[in-house]
Design a protein that fits this description.
Elements (H helix, E strand, L loop, with lengths): L1 H14 L1 H6 L3 E2 L7 E4 L13 E4 L7 E4 L2 E4 L6 E5 L5 H4 L4 E10 L9 E7 L2 E7 L3 E3 L5 E4 L8 E8 L10 E6 L2 E2 L16 E6 L10 E10 L4 E2 L4 H20 L1
Parallel strand pairs: 1-17
Antiparallel strand pairs: 2-16, 3-6, 4-5, 5-16, 6-15, 7-12, 7-16, 8-9, 8-15, 9-10, 10-11, 12-13, 13-14
């Protein structure tokens, strides 16, 4: 019984360390978010819908649907999709927030795919995550993580913004996960100076992002406008951690 109690405490303390460090509002699968849009719920094949708009230069020829996915082939100008009607949950919210996207960067030429951004701006803060073919960084190119491939299939990226945690930024701290793996326990500083507007942007925002032949495919955009949420821990991860700790405790008891 004492061993099991110790195991439980160790599992909670070790597995829960990133969440405790982040001081977030809890955990949730993005399927429980209050705002969920598959690609074809952003562009239905003939028009933008559900308060999503094209901005920054996209033309209708730059977007298409494949099943429920949205395929974006940026043209010569910058271009992105934006939740914008002055009354969306994003624009009327405040404080903490979480955005998750499922995206694949498509190789359509021999050049490096410069990717796209996820941009959350509100309350004087704008956090911008630049997703590239083999890395993620802030908008200035300061690398957060690398050594993976964003062109080999769909990957989920989640940003949770804690407006009360100033450990990684002067206006709050962003926490980033790739496929539910936290990229930095201490949070990341992806804040871009300014941030006077209220905007949720996904796509090719800027002159240094993408090029006319880069292409990306969105399975979904989901967001929770009022909470900073970590992904739900996978049961297998907890099981493996507990088994490993149990093994260590048994070895210790034999000594």
């Amino acid at each position: 019984m004492k061993t099991l109690r110790m195991l439980s405490l160790l599992a909670v303390s070790l597995y829960g360390a990133p969440l405790a460090l982040a001081a977030l509002d809890g955990t949730a699968d993005s399927s429980a978010f209050t705002n969920q849009y598959n690609g074809n719920q952003i562009w239905d094949g003939s028009a933008f819908v559900n308060d999503w708009v094209q901005s920054g230069g996209h033309t209708p020829a730059a977007v298409s649907v494949s099943g429920s996915n949205l395929i974006v082939s940026p043209d010569a100008d910058n271009g992105w999709v934006q939740h914008d009607s002055d009354t969306t949950a994003w624009e009327t919210g405040s404080g903490n927030w979480t955005i998750e996207v499922s995206v694949k960067l498509n190789d359509v030429d021999s050049a490096v795919n410069d990717g796209m951004v996820v941009w959350g701006e509100r309350d004087g803060n704008r956090g911008v995550l630049w997703i590239q073919d083999q890395a993620v960084s802030d908008l200035n190119g300061v690398e957060i993580a690398s050594g993976f491939d964003n062109t080999d299939g769909f990957h989920t990226y989640r940003i949770a913004f804690d407006s009360t945690d100033m450990s990684a930024g002067t206006t709050g701290t962003h926490h980033v996960w790739r496929d539910d793996v936290l990229l930095s326990d201490a949070g990341v500083d992806i804040n871009l100076a300014g941030g006077s507007l209220s905007r949720l942007i996904v796509g090719d925002c800027c002159t240094n992002i993408g090029n006319p032949v880069d292409q990306y495919e969105l399975a979904y955009i989901r967001y929770q406008p009022d909470m900073a949420l970590a992904p739900v821990p996978e049961p297998n991860s907890i099981f493996l951690l507990c088994m490993g700790l149990l093994g260590l405790l048994r070895l210790r008891s034999r000594r």
